[in-house]
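Hi all, long-time lurker, first post. I run a small reading group and we've been trying to get comfortable going from sequence to structure in the token notation. Rather than ask abstract questions, I figured I'd post a concrete chain and ask someone more experienced to write out its structure so we can walk through it together at our next meeting. Sequence below, copied exactly:
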Amino acid sequence: MSSIFKKHFSIISYIENFNTRIKALRTEHKLSQNALAKKINSSQKIIDYWEKGDSEPKANFIVALADCFGVSCDYLLGREDDFGNVNINSDLSDNEKLLILAYNRSNEKNKETLLNFARFLVDNNSSDKQRP
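-- Answer (accepted) --
Happy to help. Here is the structure in token form:
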């Protein structure tokens, strides 16, 4: 994996981490760590550990957090975006993730160039397979 890809992909992964999402949701709902802990029958220290990424909650707490914030467990775990789309990046190879990252970070002109090149490659692969 290239160092550029690692740098950019790790930033994206960090943003989507469970700990970042629960902290963002907690602050969005104007809850202190202690108030959230009381709502889900946990402790402030545990909430702090989760937000720092020092610990991961058990399934029952993930469900309690999802119910508390009105989101899905998949959203909390980074498997679903804000619009309910399931994130399939975990099933992709590093090269496939790099292609998606390149597309997402490109301006409109470069996106169109990437799409045209992808179409060219797909068409050439199809015609190569049809040759005797």
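A couple of things your group might point at:
Residues 108-130 form the longest helix (23 residues).
The chain has eight helices and no strands.
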